[in-house]
Design goal:
Low-confidence stretches: none
Order of helices and strands: EEHHEHHHEEEEHEEHEEHH
Number of helices: 9
Mean pLDDT: 86
Structural class: alpha/beta
Strand content: 15-25%
Helix content: 40-55%
Distance between the termini: 47 Å
Shape: elongated
Number of domains: 2
Radius of gyration: 20 Å
CATH class of the largest domain: Alpha Beta
CATH topology of the largest domain: Trna Endonuclease, Chain: A, domain 1
Strand order of the largest sheet: 4-5-6-8-10-11
Length: about 230
């Protein structure tokens, strides 16, 4: 195959990565015996300096052309989440956590020891109360890095100290970062050390199989339930 470059969302030019596309098709749930057939069709439509968005659409369409509409929906889910505005994504997270039997409150201000904290979602279950930081990135190819997780830890400490000193009656027991992107290795390592919860694309720190992340939790809801949640966001 001749050398082909892809123009990323940030405008940078990057060499086409066949393995990355192959892996993304596999992760959509397509059976291994069909992946190479689909990949061959995709690569027949590529051209030099193709935008990432167009490549993404070609992949989704070719998966669907093989009669794999459910897998195509899974592949497109990531893009659909990135199109939600921040408030709608926060409400979406609240809604699917409620389907997982969490009692949730959206968009609350809680007094910490040093400052007030605007908390995206408070989620309570099994005698644990989480402050949930919801990060929605328009560019879903980026990683959520170490800085986001260290900030999460600092906010948790301030909220817990605020409770101990009587500045709030909400006893936050832990923090949870939920995002539509992947996490960097350092973010995972730090959160694991501190006992923080992470849920993102292809990563769930609480799951037995940590590679089954946000996309798997949403898929469990089913297409009808997802449509109902999105409808109720308005």
């Amino acid at each position: 195959m001749k050398e082909i470059f892809v123009i990323k969302y940030n405008g940078k030019r990057q060499l086409y990565n066949r393995q990355k596309v192959l892996s993304s098709i596999l992760h959509s749930g397509v059976q291994k015996n069909k992946v190479l057939e689909i990949l061959k069709k995709i690569e027949g439509k590529l051209y030099n300096n193709i935008p990432t968005k167009e490549l993404y659409q070609i992949v989704s369409k070719e998966i669907e052309n093989y009669g794999l509409k459910q897998h195509s929906r899974t592949y497109r889910l990531r893009e659909a989440l990135s199109r939600l505005d921040s408030s709608s994504f926060e409400k979406f997270v609240k809604a699917f956590l409620e389907k997982e039997s969490f009692k949730c409150i959206w968009n609350q201000k809680i007094q910490g020891y040093c400052i007030d904290h605007q908390v995206d979602v408070i989620a309570e279950k099994n005698n644990e109360t989480f402050f949930v930081e919801v990060k929605k990135h328009k560019n879903f190819h980026r990683d959520s890095g170490l800085g986001t997780v260290t900030e999460l830890w600092a906010r948790l400490e301030d909220l817990q100290k605020g409770f101990k000193n009587g500045k709030t009656d909400i006893n936050i027991t832990n923090a949870w970062l939920i995002t539509n992107t992947k996490f960097s290795d350092y973010a995972k390592k730090y959160s694991n050390c501190k006992g923080l919860k992470l849920l993102g694309w292809r990563y769930n720190s609480s799951a037995q199989n940590k590679a089954e992340g946000l996309e798997k939790m949403i898929e469990k809801l089913g297409v009808g339930m997802i449509a109902e949640i999105v409808k109720n966001l308005r």
